[in-house]
Amino acid sequence: MDIATPPGYSRLVALDTRQHRGLGVVARRHCFAANLTGIYLAAAEFIQAARHYPIVFAHDGTGDEFVPLAVTGLEQDINLFVGADGDWQGDVYIPAFVRCWPFYGARITDGPKRGELLICVDDTGLDTNGEALFDQHGNPTALLKSAQTLIGELEAARSATRQLCHDLRELDLLMPFEAHALPKQGHEWRVRGMYRVDEPRLNALDAETVKRLMNSGELSRIYAHLMSLDNFKFLMDRAVARQSATAVKH
Questions:
Q1: Could you give the C-alpha distances from 130 to 17, 25, 26, 28, 118, in angstroms and in order?
Q2: In the chain, is it the N or the C terminus that has fewer CB atoms within a 10 Å radius of its CB?
Q3: SS3 at position 20
């Protein structure tokens, strides 16, 4: 079946015991996200991610649907959380999407196994020197088992994430906005194409709707999103620090 390639991934194939036996995951595995300035988030991640990233919503590219993203950069192709060593910067939450790579879960779209979750792998992230996927008997190693568990959890969380985005759209709570940063040193940054919850509209919701959002857990996610927007300042600080470090090297 055709598998849509997620952002940052290069080439997805179905994980196969015989084909991939003897291979392991490459070092510096976060390099794949070095050019991603927005990372997909599940709704269940909002509370943790809100401590470190601005959480915004963006069109998913297929129509009127939205997806939540952790903003990781202010300039195109520069992820401020992937260091020169190829690793995600320490002391910050690493989104599940990043931790999954080079693995990915895709639903089978046809045939007798239609609807089942297929474990895929970006085979550009494998080599003979990395941490092994299978042991000498062809059984999954702890690395692969952990990845399979994470993919399952992320897939299970997708429905709640889609429901959150659906409810925000149906309640007409999302409004477009842009982030504008003009640091004392360096150049101006503008980030467009983002959506946020409109607080006046949120505050104007009737009690029954607010109670429904509260009972579903969506209200806490909404407030985590709103509070996270203050992190644009910290993102600007990161950008200035990296820019200064680059200038010193040159």
A1: 16, 5, 5, 10, 23
A2: C
A3: helix
